[in-house]
Design goal:
Helices cover 52% and strands 7% of the residues. It is built from 24 helices and eight strands. Helix 23 links the parallel strand 7 and strand 8 (396-398). The longest helix is centred in the middle third of the chain and has 21 residues, at 218-238.
Length: 408
């Protein structure tokens, strides 16, 4: 795809990156075949190819409109198109650049500005989110349905292991997950403790930066990233830890991109690259211990379990098959649904900002999951779990919680 950048962005870091991405696109349209919003809405501008054209026009100096903004807002950033694309187009990076440019030129309605500001200022700060979440659950019947969906009962965390092991890894506690599902990280610590690995949480680390960055507060998102690097760096510099473990794939895909996102920052570029290199999704850690897991597993008859692989894991991080492999080693009858490559509609804050599309995608996904005959659903990202649980009576948990139940 040939393009001539407008003077306002020509030669800039974002401009050069966007131009390289655009030049990789060959207009083939394969991306539309696996785009959830294109499948649902049938509009070329609600598919990756159409959105690429919208962004290209803005980069070339065209004035964006509210309609342009709407089509970019409707993108889930699931990055399924990147998996499908034969040319390796980095669509996720391009849409981040395009959204920022459009938002700088198109004013949003007051209601949208309030909603987006509330989300990006409250969700990343656990000191604000935790009390707000508790209050929301107490007042749940009085709230709009789209917010009620997010206020599911939380499973108690249980104990955190205190044994010291020679092998140590850092764990990102996260921002919303400790309030919404505190048992996920605790279960991870307990499982790894059984395998003689100690998990450490750096108290000053918080939101990975994805929430603010992908809502076009990119400076705010980068601040979150720098804060995390500062919190983790003493452990890394001393060589105390061998990996940085992620239990939420949405966080993992972002932390793995710190090196790229902060490459322009001389004070953080090298550290960010090191942090990204150390980052592992939990499903990348546990295959090493398959024999121990198989030996420890309680071979009790169990109902079939359906695994929903989050987009941030299978498309963002390009990790497939590892969760299923670990669960199979533990004797779990785990299956994938027919459209396992498609987004469930959660997509971070998307399910709050675009509830109609998100709910339509959720109903389709739950229908496919139900067709497997599974009695339980597991996933690997807190957003997917919460979103799916709001639409079904079947339990939806993190796969590490299921693994713990099998091991103890």
């Amino acid at each position: 795809m040939q393009t001539t950048l407008a003077s306002f962005i020509e030669g800039t870091r974002e401009g050069l990156e966007a131009e390289a991405i655009l030049r990789a696109c060959v207009h083939c349209g394969f991306c539309n075949a696996t785009c959830p919003t294109y499948q649902l809405l049938g509009d070329e501008l609600d598919g990756p190819r159409g959105r690429i054209y919208l962004i290209k026009q803005v980069l070339e100096g065209a004035t964006p409109t509210r309609k342009s903004q709407l089509h970019l807002d409707r993108c889930l950033t699931c990055r399924n198109c990147e998996t499908t694309c034969p040319s390796g187009v980095k669509y996720g990076r391009l849409v981040d650049i395009g959204r920022k440019l459009v938002d700088e030129r198109v004013a949003r309605p007051l209601g949208e500005r309030i909603a987006r500001t509330t989300l990006k200022e409250c969700l990343p700060r656990s000191s604000l989110f935790k009390p707000a979440f508790r209050a929301g659950r107490a007042l749940r019947p009085l709230l709009p349905v789209k917010l009620q969906d997010k206020l599911q009962p939380a499973r108690a965390a249980g104990h955190w292991p205190t044994r010291v092991h020679a092998r140590k890894m850092l764990l990102l506690d996260g921002c919303v997950q400790p309030a919404m599902a505190p048992n996920i990280n605790a279960a991870t610590a307990r499982v790894l403790d059984l395998l003689a690995v100690q998990l450490i949480v750096a108290p000053q680390a918080g939101c990975c930066g994805a929430l603010r960055y992908h809502m076009n507060d990119q400076d705010g998102g980068l601040q979150d990233m720098r804060r995390n690097i500062d919190a983790w760096w003493p452990y890394v510099e001393r060589g105390d830890v061998e990996a940085l473990v992620m239990t939420a794939s949405g966080c993992g895909v972002t932390v793995k991109e710190y090196g790229h996102l902060l490459a322009h920052d001389p004070a953080y570029a090298a550290k960010a690259g090191r942090i990204s290199a150390l980052t592992r999704d939990l499903s990348e850690i546990l295959p090493e211990f398959e024999e121990q897991i198989a030996a420890r597993a309680q071979r009790r008859p169990a109902p079939r379990v359906a695994y929903h692989p989050p987009c941030t894991l299978q498309h963002g991080q390009q990790i497939r098959g590892k969760v299923e492999r670990v669960l199979h080693a533990a004797g779990v009858d785990v299956v994938l649904c027919a459209d396992n490559h498609l987004c469930c509609g959660s997509a971070g804050a998307y399910s709050v900002l675009q509830p109609e599309i998100a709910q339509a995608l959720r109903e389709r996904k739950l229908g496919s999951l139900a067709a497997t005959g599974a009695m339980e659903i597991v996933s690997a990202n807190i957003g997917c779990q919460t979103h799916l649980q709001a639409g079904t009576d079947k339990p939806v948990t993190h796969w590490i919680e299921l693994l713990e139940r099998v091991l103890v």
